């Protein structure tokens, strides 16, 4: 519900509350004035955001123009002239930003110019590398740019520059990961600095970018981790890692710290974990942990180290889950215990996948673990819808419907393909999906609306 | 997104400007110092490829010392990708060739190859590829030879637009050579580009 709708709703409700004697006329007017002020300030904030967005788009164009200008006129300039031009353009952008930001003359323009200064700093690094034919380890150029951007954001507390710094840090790490095949731990230092600033300054948009950059970094690093273990091992570890981050974010959030950041971190981590649980649900992908080391002793050592990592992550999730259950003020509801049981079954399945695949139970096929994972996915859907409804969290309800739809479509194509006559299956399956989709969407909307109304504390009763 | 601080803006922005300018000056200075070094070697190349999309034309240079066969060199024997290495260069006529390779700079400086002759210098590089087998044309079989691809940070040379092709695909008898300045740590910077011994471009101090 937006503020205008809320104001209108209040206007309708307040006479009733006055009639009940809950509010007097002065208090009613004060409440309406306050909400009206909020609505106006949001409108002002929106117009400010528009100026900022336009400013940033202008900065991008200017920056691209500066690169093209230098590229086109490069040979016509002496080295000293080139360097003077580079430094003076960066200085000009920063001084203009200082003018616009002083006494908040033009704050949106000032932020855009500050960003322009940071982008020109990066242009200068690239162009100086060209002047001096520098060809050594090129990610270092992006590293230098990231450092410059972080310095700017620390000193000026600019969200736009922090977003740019986070993207640059990910770009730097991506180059190291893809071009130099490194598992690039130093990136985590930059990420931690970004997290600290985003939480301290309560930056919302930057929080999303920084959280997403963590999961992109993990995805980028996937291939390099597979040098040390099979894809199945890494997928299992990523699933557990997503659950650890999810539970950890919720545990810290329960202490009323960094609420916005941790809420979003837990949501993205949950989606991240679900992606890998979904990947494990595919039959025939052979995603079981295996080791490709040649010597037997190395294999045992490596296997033990992966078992250790798995167990540590599982222990962390269990510990955090118990902590979460302990935090529950009243009697722990049944669905939370069932959620805990779900986790234990998942962990048992993952361990089964590691140590009994492929021969022990399934005689060379992974079907038992895959069947259990699929059952876990579908039971999770029910659990998520229920807990989302009880805890008034539409996110879980929506996520559950997405998981259900995607998993159902996936199983439609891979599991049942050979089991029924194809054309008949398509017709019946198609109809079922269409009606199922319609019914699910209708239910989803009802549940989301109900959650939303309960969250706002407004009911129609 | 708004800066809500009320501290004076100008001093803080000037501080940012100062730090970023110092970083850029350090980048320039590190190159200018090497360019002013007295140690200059001439290396043979086989230019191969042009053009950077947003940096104009450039020549990709493939030096003879980029491909090293360990059985032809003395020094260390075991290398892996991304190792930093120190290659001892020896003057042979007009040009300089690799004669030893080490993982540690001190070992390279104290090596008998370096000590024995003053006309030897160090160049620092990074191992990009290690190959342990090579096809022997005569025997028509794989032979066990460890060869390294080493980059020295001097593999690109930016040239005026449209001139990249001339250097990258020279005439049959044309020879492209590079003058390389080196500092004491073996860091290398291109000082001049020569076509058939005639200087085409020179990197002046400013």
Question: Can you walk me through this structure?
Answer:
Chain A has 461 residues and is an all-alpha fold. Chain A has a domain at 241-461. In chain A, 80% of the residues lie in helices and 0% in strands. Chain A is globular, with a radius of gyration of 28 Å. The model of chain A has no long low-confidence stretch (mean pLDDT 81). Chain B has 206 residues and is α+β, with helices and mostly antiparallel strands. Chain B has two domains: 1-63 and 153-206, no CATH class; 66-151, no CATH class. Chain B has a six-stranded mixed β-sheet. In chain B, strands 1-11-12-13 form a four-stranded antiparallel β-sheet. Chain B has a three-stranded antiparallel β-sheet with strand order 2-3-10. Chain B is globular, with a radius of gyration of 21 Å.
Low-confidence stretches of chain B: 1-5, 50-56
Strand content of chain B: 35-45%
Largest sheet of chain A: none
The portion of residues assigned to helices of chain A is over 70%
Number of strands of chain A: 0
If you compute it from the alpha carbons, what radius of gyration of chain B comes out, rounded to the nearest whole angstrom? 21 Å
Mean of pLDDT of chain B = 79
Compressed to H and E, one letter per element, the order of chain B equals HEEEEEEEHHEEEHEEE
Overall tally of structural domains of chain B:
2
Give the overall shape of chain A.
Answer: globular
Straight-line N-to-C gap of chain B = 41 Å
The value of Rg of chain A in angstroms is 28 Å
